[in-house]
Design a protein that fits this description.
216 residues; alpha+beta; Protein Transport Mog1p, Chain A; eight-stranded antiparallel beta sheet; four-stranded antiparallel beta sheet; 3 helices; 12 strands; globular; disordered N terminus
Length: 216
């Protein structure tokens, strides 16, 4: 019974991945199972790929009340929409609701053709929210502009780290977010150690980003 259940679970996961890959062919995007614990997202149009835990969910719909800072307005053209969004509602070693106000983690990615590096640099700072200073950072050989932002309201909150990289005439943008929700009840806030652990989980995805010449 256990072997059958595991087989059915893997078959269902592969079926869902197949649907995503099929639906993404027209936009040169797709995901595939690398091994039982890892997935890989690939965007051939912009030459971007990254890995993420297989337990996380791939979606282009916002999973939490607060939206990512890089989320486009509802009426923008398809070319300006998010190209990938993955999320999870749990993290190893970190208590979630109802013990704390931790709701989940999100990793969003979009890309735009831009004319200059300065245009990409400006895209690291969102228009709204409590925005931190802009700095430059190199991660695994990738040079990013980095800024932080946070928003809160109606018992919900989100803190984000936004990274942008200019590559091959494009601006690649990654949004690493921690979502919080009190659900009408004041819950324990995350400790500094828990926050660091969550940020490390998100950075693990960013650390896997590879950029190759795009297929234009």
């Amino acid at each position: 019974m256990v072997a059958i259940a595991k087989g059915q679970f893997l078959k269902a996961r592969l079926f869902r991945v197949g649907i995503i890959c099929t639906a993404s062919v027209l936009s040169a995007q797709g995901v595939r199972l690398l091994n039982p614990s890892s997935m890989q997202f690939t965007d051939q149009q912009f030459g971007v790929s990254f890995r993420y835990p297989a337990s996380w969910t791939f979606s282009l719909s916002q999973p939490f009340y607060m939206q990512l800072a890089i989320s486009p307005a509802p009426d923008v053209p398809d070319r300006d929409r998010l190209r990938a969004l993955i999320y999870t509602t749990s993290a190893a070693g970190v208590a979630s609701r109802p013990d704390t106000d931790f709701e989940g983690l999100e990793f969003g990615y979009d890309a735009h053709y831009v004319s200059t590096p300065n245009t990409c640099r400006a895209l690291a700072k969102p228009e709204d929210g409590d925005i931190g200073p802009l700095d430059e950072i190199t991660i695994k050989g990738n040079r990013y502009w980095h800024a932080t932002t946070s928003n809160a309201g109606l018992g919900h909150g989100m803190s984000e780290d936004i990274y942008t990289m200019f590559s091959n005439g494009s601006c690649l943008r990654f949004d690493l977010a921690v979502s919080r929700s009190e659900g009408g009840v004041v819950l324990r806030a995350l400790t500094a150690s828990e926050q660091s652990q969550l940020h490390a989980s998100l950075l693990g995805v960013l650390n896997s980003v590879l950029v190759a010449p795009p297929a234009r």
